[in-house]
Amino acid sequence: MKIYSVALNLHDQNTYDGVYHNQRERHTRFKHNLPYYADAYAHQSDILNTNDYRLNKEFVEEYWKKKDDVLAFTWTQGGIRMMRDQIDKEFLDFTPKKLFDYVMKDNVYYIDHHQSHATYAFLNSGFDISDIVAIDGIGAKFRCIFVDKDKNIKDLSKELPLGWLWNQMSKLTGFGSLGASKLMGLVGYGSYNQYYYDVFETIISGDIKEKKYDIHNLINIEKYGLESLAFTLQKFTIDKIKEHIYPLKSCDNLCLAGGVAYNGYMNEEFTKHYNNVFIPPAVGDEGQAIGVYQHADYVLNNNIHKSETFAGTDYEYKGDEKVDYTEIAQSIADGKIIGWFQGKSESGNRALGNRSILADPRNPKIKSIINDTIKLREDFRPFVPAVLEEHYKEYFDTNSPSPYMSRICKVKTDKVPGITHVDNTARIQTVNKQFNEKFYNIINEFYKITGIPMLLNTSFNCQEPIVETPEEAIRTFKKTALDLLVIGDYVVRK
């Protein structure tokens, strides 16, 4: 049975066929692939021209009801506006009570948006049993669900609208609906503010849909500061997790999914309460189609399908100058910044070693250099240390590997200021040879030269989706201050 899965989201629409994960933004070059014309969306004001659905219509016409296969799908309200007349009411009204509940009609298989998050995390975890928390950052009514070890779903949306709160604060502070990660970058600069905490309590109390709060008037950034808002919001988030999730614990394993699971501070906190915590790489809506596929494959074929981390297209290319790992590592040690393009692209929004920018973590100025001359983004945003797995405990205060950049922990040394945030933390990526051999090798060569078993790693892009093709890599290389570009086994120079 051929299964083709589609996530018709308001943002980050994607498809998956069991092998290839197509994140539409990588090909349209339209960040988050919102279902509107690029010029119809204003990030500062979140004004949508709701008469404009070209991208959405194109997506629906291409993938809806493929006659010869099973189409497995999920949706958010914004994602299906062009096709509501085609969707059976049973789909529209469906609310699952168990993780593996579903609706199947005319070769169309449907599961709930949050089920796809939860399934993606659980079936990739390798756990036999697990608690599962899925919290949306934007979309699908900003819901939060908890799934216990028996796969029962508990809806915590009213008690725990954390994604909604982060979304509102992100919009209020000018970062837009999808800018919560920027707000999180300010957490380390702030301090606790009781006024903000009390306001957050007021805002989320009861049914938020019944409240008519003017959040702009409640939040006084001019008086109390943006950095303190970010810090207090992070503390509030962790406190609410302790209050509402911890009492539900039913086993020692936990899977996290949904946009809020990009919150590295929160994720690290969970490791103090659960022995084993799993967070997959495409944890937000960009991984929805994988979860849908896994759900359908499990129910229809009794197959536990584990998706590959690197599931994009593998491109063919050739060149003149073969790469020398030692030379490239020495160039990084000498202060050069490297574009690194290898094999298939990663699933998700994190560059895990195939579409990366690499630099020396020992350089205290490297963050400003990359943000100012390559990424063209806010200077307060930090970078990831990609560290050899066998050495991470020497440099970071955390109790388990983090291959997908999912957790933020304390840095134990002053030797790597380039990846150390202002609050002495870092969002770490642990790398072993089995996970990504070429990436491991370049880090290891740098280790041999410098004695530091890590590199600064950030996504290969410049105010756009992560580069997908060799052509895009070359274009970004040429227009930025990158010093060298490695594509496969070849070196490109300016």
Give me the CATH architecture of the largest domain, please: Alpha-Beta Complex
Distance linking N and C termini = 49 Å
Strand order of the largest sheet: 17-18-19-16-20-15-14-21-22
Largest sheet: 9 strands, mixed
Tally the helices: what do you get? 17
The CATH topology of the largest domain: DHBP synthase
Q: What is the assigned CATH homologous superfamily of the largest domain?
A: Carbamoyltransferase, C-terminal domain
Question: Which geometry do the CA atoms define?
Answer: globular
Q: Give the overall pLDDT as a whole number.
A: 91
CATH top-level class of the largest domain? Alpha Beta
Uncertain runs are: 40-50
Radius of gyration: 22 Å
Fraction in beta strands: 15-25%
Number of domains: 3
Would you give an account of this structure?
The protein is α/β, with parallel strands linked by helices. The protein folds into three domains: 3-125 and 282-301, no CATH class; 153-278, Nucleotidyltransferase, domain 5 (2-Layer Sandwich), CATH 3.30.420; 325-492, Carbamoyltransferase, C-terminal domain (DHBP synthase). Helix content is 31%, strand content 18%. It has 17 helices and 22 strands. It has a nine-stranded mixed β-sheet, sandwiched between helices. It has a six-stranded mixed β-sheet with strand order 3-2-1-6-8-7, with helices on both faces. Strand 12 (253-257), helix 11 and strand 13 (276-278) form a beta-alpha-beta unit. Helix 7 (194-204) crosses helix 10. The longest helix is centred in the middle third of the chain and has 19 residues, at 226-244. The radius of gyration is 22 Å and the shape is globular. Mean pLDDT is 91; it is low at 40-50.
